[in-house]
Amino acid sequence: MLNPEKMSRITVIGPKSRAYKIIDRLHKLKVYHITDHVKTEELDIGSPLGDSEEISEVLVKIRAVSSFLNIDLESHRVHEKKINPASARKKIEGLSKTIDQKSSELKDAEDHIRILQERLDIIEDLKALNLNLEAFHDYKSLDYLFGTIEDSKEIKEELESFDGKCKGLTAGSMGRNLLVLFFDESIRKDIHDKISRRGFSEIDISFIAEEGLKGKPSEEIKKLNEKIMAFEKKRIMINNELYYIKDRWEGYLADAEYNLSVESEKAEAPLRFGATSEAFIIKGFVPSERADKVVKDLNDTSDSRIMIRTEEVDEHDEDIPVKLNNPNPVGFYEWFMDLYTLPKYKEIDPTFLMFLTFPLFYGFMLGDVGYGLVTLTLFLILRTRIKGDFGRLVNAMIFTSISTIIFGVLFAEYFGVELYAPILVNRLHDTQGLMIMAVAIGAVHVNIGLLVGFYNELRSHGFVKAVFEKLSWLVLEAGVVLLALSYTDFISPRPLPWGGFTIIAISIFMIYRGEGAKGLVEIPAIFSHMLSYARLMAVGLASVILAMVVNDLAGGMFAGGIAGIIGGALLLVVGHTINIGLGLISPFLHSLRLHYVEFFTKFYDGGGLRYAPFGAEKQSE
Amino acid sequence: MADLGTGLIALSAGIAISVTAIATAIAEKQIGSAAVGAMAEKEGLFGKGLILTVIPETIVIFGLVVAILIIGMAGSH
Fold it and tell me: Searching chain A, which residue's CA lies closest to the CA of residue B47?
């Protein structure tokens, strides 16, 4: 439980003729972690199997079609039918042709609707001006302009200066000022100058003359509406057809996509192998307890025509994948390791330690029976809804909720109300006691971290290094404590100060030997890290005080009759909901931070390689 | 009515909290905006960003510790 799962290194060498069978078998086994081969002068990387290009092409088509039809490939997967690339290609090509045709028809209909709608808007405007459409045909010596203008009153006065060579009409429509001008061609330029200064913007109505539209605008509007309706009908029809196609094909597309992705992964697997002209070599890892079975399986599939070598791993190797190995409920806390970084293969896996202390800190901070019950109910409900990666977090939070209830009993807090004399400490009145308790927890936690670090160093670099790097800090702490005792009255007679000084000096020398100058800089950090646990008090105190404020305010309102009681009840619900919301976020983050920053820095390197067996669904990074 | 000394103690406790709170705010502002930038590139960094953002919270917590010690000092005199 404290170590990642044991791995065995398995190397497979075989003739290329057997490659597909081996790859197929490994893909089905879903336990073999392939280490990518790096090209060397002696050994090139392999080339993809024959039909990988074709498969990729079909896959691209499937994905394009699915995205056009809005198909969620994940949710329609049936996972059963076997689909071969050639038949899939034929089907998809047919489908893709139909869809191309439908989509161009759809676009055509939509374009028509858009143009007709624009014309409809223009003719609605003309209707407001009370002119027949013939007015906008071409004239011999007249010209006209139609558009909107910012200020219609002043422009009218200005236009009078043209001595009847120009006639303007204005109207308001949808909050805009419409203007139409008929004028002699000779004054076209002057007119343009005048109206553009008044913020005129022209609307193109050339289609009226081009198509020879006549009669009253209202009749034309009627015609346009009919045309739009016809295209709308067509659009709906095409959409229905597409919907029908989607309904019929989504199962097949999802299956085909899944099957072909698998095939494509297999076909491209040799890119991760080493290869000569006739043979391939696969290097990788398998959990030790599965190693024998994997070897036997591979030999069976290839009629023993391949060579397999199994080795114990040297735990200092960097390329060993890490698979955390914790039974639930500890396993739920692996989520926190995924969030941070996985341990290296030779390192202690801190998940179990986190399982012990994370709920402890969280409960210490939130510590209220009422809040604990609310969050417990919340997470028990969420547990049935959320699966997968976040499901682990929800399960982990169930334990933190239980811890909150336990600490709530110890602190005697029930929605901020103190029901009896607290068993552990009165958080509101004995802040100093609470703070000392928090820092003491910190001292213990940090020292556990140092001891784990000692063990890690012992395992990877030997005893001497471990003593200088990790135990030196414990010596430093002992020196500081001794020094503190010689200036206070906790024990009598007081020890002499030089004892403390000597031990501190020795420890500083040890730290310098172990960690160099960087260690010396960090000397104050170890104490600030312990003090940092004072947040266990601070965050908790904030939560208690907020709860009390809500209760007091609501209590005051209850005295004020019916309205007061309703208002008070509302305030209680809203106030405590907000406080619980804060209580979920703040203690969670601070507890996490105490682990990541204060605890892990004492022993944890991380940076382990995630165990990603060939063929298993990819875990999102 | 509290005397001037008590007032000074209360004031210093207030200063201890407020100055450290401002310092925390300044630090979190920068980390927070950087974290949001990183998240725009890769959404999986939300968890790490959140953790990094609360790191300077230590400053204000030390402020609170100091404030409590100051108030405690007042009680013992």
Answer: A339
Whether A305 contacts A36, CB under 8 Å: no
**B22 interface with A at CB cutoff 8 Å:** no
Domain extent at residue B28: 9-76
Least confident of A46-60, A78-92, A236-250, A353-367: A78-92
| Domain-embedded: residue B3 | no
Chain B contact set for A532 (CB, 8 A): 58, 61-62
Residue B55 to residue A593, Cβ atoms within 8 A: yes
Q: Is residue B64 part of a domain?
A: yes
In angstroms, what separates the C-alpha of B4 from chain A's closest C-alpha? 24
The residue length of chain B stands at 77
pLDDT at A258 over 90: no
Nearest CA in chain B to A541: B64
Predicted local distance difference test score (pLDDT) of residue A215 = 82
Does the residue B2 lie in any domain? no
Residue B1 domain flag? no
- The residue assigned the tokens 């999102």 is A620
Sequence-distant (6+) residues with CB within 8 A of A181 are A144, A145, A146, A159, A166, A167, A168, A169, A191, A195
Closest CB to A531: pick one of B51, B65, B68: B65
- Spans of all domains in chain A: 133-214, 348-602
User: Do the chains contact at A534 and B62, CB–CB below 8 Å?
Assistant: yes
**pLDDT per residue over A583-613, tens digit each?**
888 899 899 989 988 899 888 888 888 888 8
| CATH topology assigned to domain A133-214 | Alpha-Beta Plaits (3.30.70)
Judged by CB atoms closer than 8 Å, whether chains meet at A535 and B68 is answered as no
Q: Encode pLDDT of B2-20 as tens digits.
A: 688 888 888 999 999 999 9
Residues 6+ apart with CB under 8 A from A533: A438, A439, A441, A442, A443, A445, A594, A598
- Say what the ipTM of the complex is: 0.80
The count of domains in chain B is: 1
